[in-house]
Amino acid sequence: MQTPSGLRLAWPLQDGVVVTPVEGRWRFGRFELQRDERRLLADGEAVPLGARALDLLVALAEAAGQLRTRDQLLEQVWPGRVVEENNLSVQINALRKVLGNDVVATVPGHGYRFVARIESAALPPAHLVALPALRLRTQLPERLAPLIGRADELVALQALVDREPLVCITGAGGTGKTLLAQTLL
Fold first, then answer.
1. Which of 13, 77, 120, 138 has the highest local Cβ count within 10 Å?
2. Run of H or E residues at 112
3. In which region does residue 34 sit, left (phi positive, over 0), alpha (psi from -120 to 50) or beta (all else)?
4. Distance (Å, rounded) from C-alpha 53 to C-alpha 31?
5. pTM for this structure?
6. Which domain holds residue 158?
7. Separation CA 3–CA 10 (nearest Å)
8. Tell me, what CATH number does 104's domain have?
């Protein structure tokens, strides 16, 4: 089903065909689930969600509109582990706190169904919202100072890195070890 903006909808199902999202991404309401990045976004901002709750959300979104039994979900989210069924209920409640009550429906005595309207996240790049780049918390400067007089050391270090699985740079403090390694990387 095409919308005026060119989005293909996966829900409701038409003729038994589900439009699967490209690269494991699903958009529903103000949320975007990114399976491979293992994160949930709300209005473009990361939402804190536990690992099991995220696994459960992915399992439900992959089968959008279809009933997933408790046993199926337990096996997919906790593979090969013995867990109490109430763990599933706890994770469903955690999802409902974040997503609201209208995303995951309970089918009493059977299991759960993802019922939110899903839009495929396969949009042309021009229509995607740019997310801010993740920045590492570090004491290192964003821009490197120029490496002066270390061309020979840089060549030798590159040869070592190409040849050895692990290379340690040692020496007295303040001699430029970090800058040499940063320049190489």
1. 77
2. strand 111-114
3. beta
4. 15
5. 0.55
6. 136-185
7. 11
8. 1.10.10.10
Distance between terminal CA atoms of the chain?
47
Q: Which residues contact 44 (CB under 8 A, 6 or more apart)?
A: 32, 129, 131
Q: How far apart are CA 10 and CA 48, in angstroms?
A: 26
Per DSSP bridges, beta strands 119-120 and 25-28 are antiparallel
Q: What single-letter amino acid sits at 185?
A: L
Could you tell me how many residues make up the chain?
A: 185
In this structure, the dihedral spanned by the alpha carbons of residues 154, 157, 163 and 168, taken in order and rounded to 10 degrees, is: -160
**9 belongs to a structural domain:** no
CB contact burial 84-108 (16+ within 10 A = b; e otherwise): eeeebeebbebbeeebeeebbeeee
Q: Tens of pLDDT along 71-116? A: 999 999 999 888 888 899 999 999 999 999 999 999 998 999 999 9
